[in-house]
């Protein structure tokens, strides 16, 4: 006979919903932030017994939760593998990202993300968004202080928009397993767009990565003595 364990009534609760603890968001390195199913979905699954632990929060409780989350003071955070299967979960995820005003290192691996262009991460120096669904550099968040950016295993087909990072302190960039990696003169094009870049796909800048002058340009020139 199948019997539900006592922990079943907590399996869809976030860490903020569990009473009598003082853990804050900036104390967690890899928090689970994906929200549980809606009331309708729980009823459809015949798991409405979990609703007794979920109560509608008052304005005071919402403010207390905001203070407990404390995302504004996170300096290093891993929000990878969140399994964001529903739109409301994606919106809640972006709500948290908008609060990361002091984060310096952020991992968002394998979250099926497609567009974070409305997000600003003013202090982020290291960002890992491997294994997502980005198709353009324009879909990345605003990261003016970025130094290390990893975009492996996305779907970026061209280098259009990469020059937007020219005025950032970007030192290393990973684009492995993106379609743009197969573009002719790929490394030369990246380094010419980002003259301050030191490492591409784990390989330091080599002499052959420096684009030579376009020979055709000299054929169009004449010398006047």
Automatic annotation (TrEMBL):
It comes from the Eukaryota. The keyword Nucleus does not apply. Coiled coil: none annotated. Keywords: Leucine-rich repeat, Repeat. This is TILB protein. Transmembrane segments: none annotated. The keyword rRNA processing does not apply. The gene is Lrcc6.
């Amino acid at each position: 006979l199948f019997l539900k364990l006592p922990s079943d009534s907590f399996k869809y609760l976030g860490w903020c919903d569990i009473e009598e603890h003082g853990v804050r968001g900036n104390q967690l390195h890899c928090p689970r932030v994906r929200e549980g199913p809606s009331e309708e979905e729980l009823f459809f699954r015949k798991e409405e017994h979990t609703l007794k632990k979920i109560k509608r929060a008052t304005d005071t409780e919402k403010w207390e939760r905001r203070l407990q989350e404390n995302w504004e003071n996170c300096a290093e955070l891993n929000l990878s593998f969140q399994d964001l299967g529903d739109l409301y979960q994606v919106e809640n995820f972006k709500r948290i990202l908008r609060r990361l005003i002091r984060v310096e290192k952020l991992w968002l691996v394998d979250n099926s993300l497609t567009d974070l262009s409305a997000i600003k991460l003013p202090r982020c120096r290291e960002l890992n968004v491997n294994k997502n669904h980005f198709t353009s550099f324009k879909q990345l968040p605003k990261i003016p202080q970025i130094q290390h950016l990893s975009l492996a295993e996305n779907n970026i087909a061209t280098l259009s928009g990469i020059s937007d990072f020219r005025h950032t302190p970007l030192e290393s960039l990973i684009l492995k397993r993106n379609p743009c990696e197969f573009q002719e003169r790929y490394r030369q094009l990246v380094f010419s767009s980002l003259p301050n870049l030191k490492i591409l796909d784990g390989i330091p800048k080599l002499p052959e990565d420096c684009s030579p002058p376009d020979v055709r340009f000299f054929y169009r020139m004449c010398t006047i003595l």
